[in-house]
Amino acid sequence: MARIRVGLLPTSSFMVGTLPVPKYADQEKTQFATDRETGAKLYTITLFFMEEDRAEALKITVPETGLPNGLRPGVPVMPVELFATPWARIFNGSLSDGIAYRAGRLDLVSPTAESA
Length: 116
What we know:
Elements: E1 4-5, E2 13-16, E3 21-22, E4 42-51, E5 54-63, E6 76-80, E7 83-91, E8 94-102, E9 105-108
Parallel strand pairs: 5-8
Antiparallel strand pairs: 1-7, 2-4, 2-6, 3-4, 4-5, 6-9, 7-8
C-alpha cells in the first residue's frame, strides 16, 4: 500500500477529541497491534483537524511511545510524521474503503499568546 505524507498548512491545528484506545490485531481483541519496526503497542486516537473554514474528526494510529503525558479531550496537539494510506476491501460482497492515518508521535502544542 502506498503511504502518502500529509502536507499541512501553517494554519492547520489539531485538538484531542477522545483518549487513545489500544488497537487490536484480531477481531476477538486478544492481541494488541504492534509497530512492525519497533514492536511498540499501537493506539487509536480521535483528533479534531481544523484548517481554514473546515473541521473534521480523524482517527489516527500512534505508537504508545509517541503518546505524550497530558493527553485529554480539548488539548491542542500536532501529529508528527503524519501519513495517509488509502485502503479498500470487499466484505460479504460489499466494497468498503477509506483512508488510514498514522503518525509517528503527537506533540503537545502550548497555547499561543493571542489565544490566552
